[in-house]
Hints:
Blueprint: H1 7-10, H2 23-34, E1 41-45, H3 52-64, H4 82-88, E2 95-99, H5 106-116, E3 126-131, H6 138-149, E4 155-161, H7 169-172, E5 176-179, H8 185-199, H9 205-214, H10 219-232, H11 243-250, H12 255-267, H13 270-282, H14 287-307, H15 318-327, H16 333-350, H17 356-371, H18 376-383, H19 391-396, H20 405-420, H21 445-454, H22 458-467, E6 468-474, E7 477-482, H23 490-502, E8 507-510, H24 519-535, H25 538-546
Helix pairs in contact: 3-4, 5-6, 8-9, 9-11, 12-13, 12-15, 12-17, 13-17, 14-16, 14-20, 16-17, 21-22
Amino acid sequence: xxxxxxxxxxxxxxxxxxxxGQDVMAQTITNAIKIGKTPNAYLLTGxxxxxxxxxxxxxxxxxxxxxxxxxxxxxTGEKFCPxxxxxxxxxxxxxxxxxxxxKTGIDDxxxxxxxxxxxxxxxxxxxxIIDEVHMLSKQAFNGLLKTLxxxxxxxxxxxxxxxxxxxxxxxxxxxxxxxxxxxxxxQLVGHLKNILIQENGKISDDGVRxxxxxxxxxxxxxxxxxxxxxxxxxxxxxxTIKEKDIREMLGLADRSKIILLFxxxxxxxxxxxxxxxxxxxxxxxxxxxxxxxxxEVLYLFSRRxxxxxxxxxxxxxxxxxxxxxxxxxxxxxxxxxxxxxxxIKTIDDLNIMGNxxxxxxxxxxxxxxxxxxxxxxxxxxEINSENNFDLKNNLVGKKINDExxxxxxxxxxxxxxxNTDQLKTKPIKNLSPEAGETKNEIMNFxxxxxxxxxxxxxxxxxxxxxxxxLVSFNRGKIDISFNENLNKNFIxxxxxxxxxxxxxxxxISLSKNTEAKSIYEQNIExxxxxxxxxxxxxxxxxIEEAFPxxxxxxIQEEKND
Length: 561
């Protein structure tokens, strides 16, 4: 019977040499294993789908392989040794894989530590692979620390994560870290073409490049998209899948058409621009994908203006290069910056608006009229003023190194526009309390949350409790750090609300403090400590004896009337 494995599993590398785009890391690990200088713990970091779990399994195989063939540290060929075969099938008794996203608590780590005391059953090393390790709780990390530092000689840890910055420094310092790189479009294209040959698939070169570009450096995402494209082809259809078919499958717009849309926007031809938009909508374009494609086009314009002619590569076609060359003469960096800002704002609006098509139409009309505004210079002066986080010195005046010219330019544009919503707002008269109106006293962070509840500012309250990490609180000034889920307009909204509620202008500053925790995180830690404390008590033991299958998940204090 024909094998029907999904391609991402079917073509998972079984040797270090087959890892895509990770040559340096693979060679380093291989050399260390050959000479017997292996660390107690490995830490593998990188974006999703870049090969962290695959690399972890390869390390496990290399450390335990029964018949290293020739110069290889892993047995090769069609027939693997029993140990490698069991690791490939994820059923080796000495290789334990744990998903920290679902097992985050101290009890899970205690079980792991208890298991570490026993010698391997059949393999040379007992190996613990902990995926998404950054999801472990603070208590779990603390429990892991000692064992990680001085494990038994027959025990190795392999930790994998997409968020290395969330891992405590004490853990990082005890691991040998390897950062898996994003795979280039060129490498992905070559890999996908090899798979197509083996699968007898027919996809045009432009279609393969589009898949590679859309995957954003993730090998797994690229192969999954390729699998999806091949499945979408009729079994009895011998035709080649075109780039157009891939775009329809993914809900992506033709970038060439987007550039032509911009031609009409820049010329002030609203009706023609809306006609192009209608074509995209009729083709079933995804609104967010469409806006992200627009951001890509804006970046191409910025490259052309600032860096000169664009060199052809795997990420851009010859047609797109010609169109950008032609129409970049009608746009300047001020326009690009403002268009970028409005595009990001529209992406946020999509989460609020129920009618996506209406949102896109209003967006295009805004761009057309924005191009004709005469006070763009004033807008940019406002963005780049010295009182607004000194953006002029930090961003506009930054010298760009020749080696990283393109990356630096992209980063400048993105950072400038990200910070736009965090600028100080000028005094707004109608926000100040009227005569005789009672001003609210906000003396601490809890007072702020309480007034947000009182004023029914649900979204603001949610951000304050969940996404904001208080560093310091003083009358008129709040220092915070935040997580990636914070509303982009949070600082602007909070500043306006504080002026409205107190009649005073407050300063909200951003801190680099990584130790601060949100109220939500603090409450989770407190609850965890209470649970741990209660589990040590006699009452807990009595309950466990009476109900052996029960599990304590929460503790609530009784409130006095």
